[in-house]
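FAQ

Q: What does a record look like?
A: Structure on top, sequence underneath. For example:
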């Protein structure tokens, strides 16, 4: 693992400007050196790019990227992820087919004619599972434990509500498994899962050899993003994690 540095400061204290200035200094010192990546959330990437351009008007060494775009760049170099990304329309069509074929296996979520909002709500649940790196086997074992506890409830309404919730969660697990299998059979993958799929390639990716990485602007990180960021820190030479907060919170007393 490369060197990791923490920068801690209150919001508006100039941390991002300090990144831009350090990148400008490093580029001026060695314009063709190893890559420098300024990793930010997608919503602030344009503002970070503007700040970088003001500090470094022209460079091929440094760039601003959100995590998904960096994962896409790594895939374009390594080309180890089989299949093609599927767009939202394709996801809806495949899920609708899965719902039709799995009707006999579903307890609560079966729909003869699912609406777009219904399909999107299930896809959003799938995305949340993926973002939090949820293990389907663990969920299924937890559902089995919860089912036995519901049997001990005294109030009939509590038992009914619990059974309904367990039925929905069980159906979601079934649909998720069948949906992922349907994607694999069609040689497709959900593009939001690309960070997970290229994670194994990070140590061998030439793009990260000797690289310097700044991770900035994140108020929080999903487990999937955090896992990918840790992989980047292990592959790069230098990683700076910028945290917004009162420095006194991190000072040992």
């Amino acid at each position: 693992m490369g060197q990791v540095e923490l920068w801690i400061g209150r919001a508006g204290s100039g941390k991002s400007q300090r990144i831009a200035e350090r990148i400008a200094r490093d580029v001026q010192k060695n314009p063709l050196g190893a890559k420098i990546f300024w990793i930010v959330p997608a919503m602030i990437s344009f503002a970070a790019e503007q700040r970088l351009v003001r500090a470094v008007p022209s460079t091929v060494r440094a760039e601003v990227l959100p995590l998904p775009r960096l994962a896409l760049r790594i895939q374009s170099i390594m080309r180890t992820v089989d299949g093609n990304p599927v767009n939202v329309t394709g996801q809806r069509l495949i899920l609708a087919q899965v719902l039709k074929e799995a009707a006999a296996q579903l307890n609560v979520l079966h729909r003869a004619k699912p609406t777009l909002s219904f399909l999107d709500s299930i896809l959003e649940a799938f995305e949340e599972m993926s973002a939090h790196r949820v293990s389907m086997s663990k969920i299924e074992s937890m559902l089995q434990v919860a089912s036995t506890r519901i049997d001990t409830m005294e109030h009939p309404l509590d038992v009914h509500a619990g059974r309904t919730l367990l039925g929905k969660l069980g159906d979601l697990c079934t649909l998720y498994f069948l949906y992922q299998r349907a994607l694999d059979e069609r040689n497709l993958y959900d593009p939001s899962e690309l960070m997970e799929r290229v994670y194994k390639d990070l140590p061998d990716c030439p793009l990260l050899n000797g690289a310097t990485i700044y991770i900035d602007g994140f108020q929080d990180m999903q487990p999937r993003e955090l896992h990918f960021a840790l992989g980047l820190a292990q592959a790069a030479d230098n990683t700076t994690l910028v945290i917004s907060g009162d420095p006194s919170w991190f000072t040992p007393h």
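Q: Is there anything notable about this one?
A: The mean pLDDT is 91.
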